[in-house]
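User: I'm putting together a teaching handout on how multi-component assemblies are represented. Below are the sequence lines for each component of a complex, exactly as they appear in our records. Could you produce the 3D structure of the whole assembly as structure tokens, so the students can see both representations side by side? Please keep the chain order the same as the input.
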Amino acid sequence: MAAAGQPVLRLSGVSKAYPANGGQSVQALRSVSLEVGRREFVSLVGPSGCGKSTLLGLIAGLEEPTEGAIEIASDSDGSPGQVAYMPQRDLLLPWRSLLDNATLGAEVGGGDRAAARKRAQSLLPAFGLEGFADALPHTLSGGMRQRAALLRTVLLDREILLLDEPFGALDALTRAALQEWLLEIWERLEAAVLFVTHDVEEALWLSDRVYVMTRRPGSIQLDLPVGLPRPRTRAVRGTPAFAALKQRLLDALLADTA
Amino acid sequence: MNTHRVARIAPALGVLAVLIGAWELVTRLAAVPEWLLPSPTVIVVEFVESLPQLAPHTARTLLEAAIGYGAALLLAFLVAALIDQSGLARRALSPLLVTSQTIPIFALAPLLAIWFGFGITPKILIVALACFFPIAVSLAGGLRNADPDMQALVRSMGGSRRQVFSKVKLPSAIPSLLSGMKIAASYSVIAAVIGEWVGASQGLGLYMLRASSSFQTARVFAVIAVIAVLSVALFLAVDVVGRWIAPWIYVRTEEAQT
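Assistant: Of course. Below is the structure of the complete assembly, with chains in the same order as your input.
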């Protein structure tokens, strides 16, 4: 089940090597090809250190691939600012209020700041942040900070969201609540999501498709369509179909580790 | 909170009171001549009596300190920004900046008097020199240590170099800048006084020299007290301004205390 229609993101044969000591270079990614369709939710799982974050950095335009091409719908000159990138840490600027953090993108992009603030205000309730517009980040809980960072990402108004382990640092309970909440938010958005995680269940439960990466140098070893009906409830996790998919993902990951 | 703070400084105030009491007692019991070591009460009386003369001298010294400090701040900002933005400037200036801190700036005072005479200029210059290095070094360090991930976030939004500087680096450097500014503030008054020792028509340094050459020891002590109080007051003023413009800095330390 490839991306429906024209993909919004396509990577063809993307490799990345970093220069290392002694003229040798370290290969971080080897010939990664993948596609993300319009409004599709795609996860990228793999062992830690396999280059998942590097891959997102390349798509976000922070670094140049050594080889291969990254095509982003509409524009594709590879410059930063075409996708909405949410790094692993929330990276809320500690000197800015929640609202000023959320509208950072409009400010940097030279957009209409008043309109951006208005829109951010109107989204606060959906993000569980109502009444915290003027709060400084250090006064917020971990879950709130993560939601604020996602609000900042959503407000960039891009067709593709790159989320790098957004719930990695949270406790299990907060994490489960935020996963459900993310699905609700995504169903209302017009955006595709490329979601990096090392949590197999999280990937399956959220995604339309899951790519499994190999160990470093990272490459794609499996493209698994999930095919579970939406909207999904927590109960889906208990079904045999879910268990079978999970087994396939784990088999692929463990086969690579052995 | 306020009683908390009082309780914290109470032991130090107690020690100070004991020392001053002992001083008073020794000078009285041993009948130490006033020109050698006046008692604290004599110094206080002298301070009150010479207040009409002290005031204009203090004003003059403060003016020199303020102009020199402002000039140092401006220059330090330019140099630190240059070091941050240009690799060549960093390699050329950083080592000099660090090693220059070992030069005894105050030893330059006679030289500045030869070059610039006995007006206000050499005093402003010596204050500016004394204040420039701590501010420049701390600001340059603060800019260098700004979180690279936060910078990458702004770049991923399509932010320019200048935006990365103004939205991430500069605010990140404020805590470090403030500590440099506090050190510089406590240097500024004594720098002006030393400039005045070399030759001046007005100022606390001149007033102090005159008193000392006529063995008015109580007056010398009164001037020393004024210099000490001014230095501490300026240090605290920077701290208060810092808390006001950058409240987020103090969060972690205060949380650690409670």
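A couple of points students might notice: The two ends of chain B are 10 Å apart (CA to CA). Confidence is low (pLDDT under 50) at residues 253-258 of chain B.
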